[in-house]
Specification:
There is one protein chain. The chain is mainly α and 105 residues long. Helix content is 61%, strand content 0%. The protein is built from 5 helices and no strands. The chain is globular and about 35 Å long. The model has no long low-confidence stretch (mean pLDDT 88).
Length: 105
């Protein structure tokens, strides 16, 4: 699993409104191609495993169940998935210290 590249890529997207706007409506393969162009190659299974793994660990740290009641997922509705990842998941990971989210990428 390439969790470091997932976090580095999401951090880079979080810091660039232009990049986030460009990618938010793209299909996952196109988003992963963009990650590769940025020097952060990811496969779809790596990306999925890293995101789900981090969400599952975050739920455990917060004492929540990792099911449809997971509090963070309620923020996902009504926004693009990529926006959820960079605007909601990354800050939660930073807040809990759960994953080493790169400071500058």
């Amino acid at each position: 699993m390439n969790a470091a590249n997932v976090l580095a890529f999401l951090t880079r997207v979080a810091r660039s409104a232009e990049l986030r706007t460009e990618l938010r409506t793209k299909a996952k393969p196109e988003v992963l191609e963009a990650a590769a162009r940025l020097g952060l190659p990811l496969t779809e299974p790596e990306f999925d495993a890293a995101v789900w793994g981090l969400e599952k660990r975050l739920a455990a740290v917060r004492g929540e169940r990792f099911d449809q009641t997971f509090r963070l997922w309620h923020l996902m509705w009504g926004q693009y998935y990529l926006d959820y990842l960079v605007l909601d998941l990354l800050p939660a990971l930073r807040e809990t210290g759960l994953a080493p989210v790169p400071a500058d990428t």
